[in-house]
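B., you asked whether I could sanity-check this one before it goes into the benchmark set. Here's the sequence:
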Amino acid sequence: MWPQQRLVGEMLVYCFVIVLLTGAFLTFFYTPSAEEVVYDGSYDLLKGIAMSTAYASVLDLSFDVRGGLFIRHLHQWSSVIFLVGVALRLTACRAFLQALPVIALLVLATLNAIVGYTLTDDLFAGRILGEAPIAWWYGAHLLLAFVVAAALVVAWRRAGGRRPRALYFVVICLSLTLLAVLFPLNQIWLHGPSM
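And here's what the prediction gave me:
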């Protein structure tokens, strides 16, 4: 295995660990429900607006939970970097059988990112949701996370992954932290609820 491939493989593992840890934090504050509520949180521009409980819980997480917005952005950036890393890893595959687990990982991770995006139930995500309940999408997101974890383990083992290096983990964490702070993603309060 080339050193570059090993670095990309380690980056995938580290990004996925960060996605899992931040996702576990977000789970404590997210409410997967389409029940209509009137928002009364700290974001003044949406006060008194009817929205889903899911959207209101994401707003509360972003503005009322200490560090919540940072964790959301860290979760999103880790997911994006994970997808880019999988695509980079796919370009290094020389044979179809070698690329098969990486292709499966890319498809599953992309699907999981789309499903995760719809959970905010904002104006754009509401179009993707369709008639399926938010709780169903939330269950699919959690299930896909476990399937992506299994696919990552299979791809890592087939590539002959070794024990990861701690310094590289610190560099990845610091880089993702800078991205999350300097370049926020998916500011749902700017485009409003789906209702």
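One thing to flag: DSSP finds seven helices and two strands in the chain. Otherwise nothing jumped out at me.
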